[in-house]
Structure formats: C-alpha cells, structure tokens
C-alpha cells in the first residue's frame, strides 16, 4: 500500500487527529499529564503518534532549552510562592472551556518571605 505523490507537492499532517487517536492513547480527550511521567515515548520526533515539537529536519531547534526551562520555571514557582484561592474559597476542580482549559477560580500567588 502506498501513495503516488507528485514532485513539489506540500503534504500536510493532521496532528490533532494523530494526538487524539484512541489506538495510541487511552482516553485521549482527558488532560492527563501524568501519562508521560514514566513513559518511554521519545518526544523528539521518533514516534509518529506524538510529536508536538515537529520532526525530522523541521523539528523545533529550541526543544532542549524548552525542556529544561519548563522544569526550572515550575520548580521556581512552587519554591518561591504560596498558592491560595481568592477569599479562601473552597477548592473546585471544575474546568471552564475556551481556547484553553482554565479553572473556574484563579489561584493567587503569594510571595514567600526571603529566607536568609
């Protein structure tokens, strides 16, 4: 099985369809970042069911930096701030749909006192 693709044809890949394919992901429409914690999936373009940074010669050149910065920034935010809901509201894990998924009630970041 194959396809004849004429020379100089642009081929577009539907990343959304690949990323939400139930053959590759259990419960693909649920936000479960923990599914990647102990995963052996290489996000650098070798697995074609998961390539958020592109692949091949067009892979994102900032990938190594982005990978390190995510851990550094999240660790710094957790270390330097206490997180609370406005006016001591009870924690509600409901989501509000939009262009991105957000919590109904925003968290307030309270800087911790300097520890010298």
The span between the termini is 67 Å
Indicate the low-confidence ranges by residue numbers: none
Total number of domains:
2
State mean pLDDT (0 to 100 scale). 77
Indicate the structural class.
Answer: alpha+beta
User: What is the overall number of helices?
Assistant: 2
Question: What is the succession of H and E elements?
Answer: HHEEEE
Mind sketching the topology for me?
Layout: H1 15-19, H2 63-80, E1 81-85, E2 95-96, E3 102-103, E4 107-111
Antiparallel strand pairs: 1-4, 2-3
Q: What are the salient characteristics of this protein?
A:
heme; 2 helices; two-stranded antiparallel sheet; 116 residues; 2 domains; 12% strand; alpha+beta
Report on this model:
Its cofactor is heme. This is Oxygenase. One of its GO terms (molecular function) is heme binding. Belongs to the cytochrome P450 family. It comes from Lithospermum erythrorhizon. There is one protein chain. The chain is of the alpha+beta class and 116 residues long. It folds into two domains: 60 residues, no CATH class; 56 residues, no CATH class. 20% of the residues lie in helices and 12% in strands. It contains two helices and four strands. The strands form two sheets. A two-stranded antiparallel ribbon has the order 1-4. Strands 2-3 form a two-stranded antiparallel sheet. The radius of gyration is 20 Å and the shape is elongated. The N and C termini lie far apart (67 Å).
């Amino acid at each position: 099985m194959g396809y004849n693709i004429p020379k100089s044809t642009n081929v577009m890949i539907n990343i959304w369809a690949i990323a939400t394919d139930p053959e590759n992901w259990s419960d693909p429409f649920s936000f479960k970042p923990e599914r990647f914690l102990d995963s052996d999936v290489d996000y650098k373009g070798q697995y074609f069911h998961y390539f958020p940074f592109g692949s091949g010669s067009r892979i994102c050149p900032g990938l190594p930096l982005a990978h390190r910065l995510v851990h550094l920034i999240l660790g710094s935010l957790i270390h330097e701030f206490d997180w609370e809901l406005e006016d001591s509201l009870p924690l509600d894990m409901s989501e509000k749909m939009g262009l991105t998924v957000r919590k109904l009630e925003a968290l307030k970041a309270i800087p911790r006192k300097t520890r010298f």
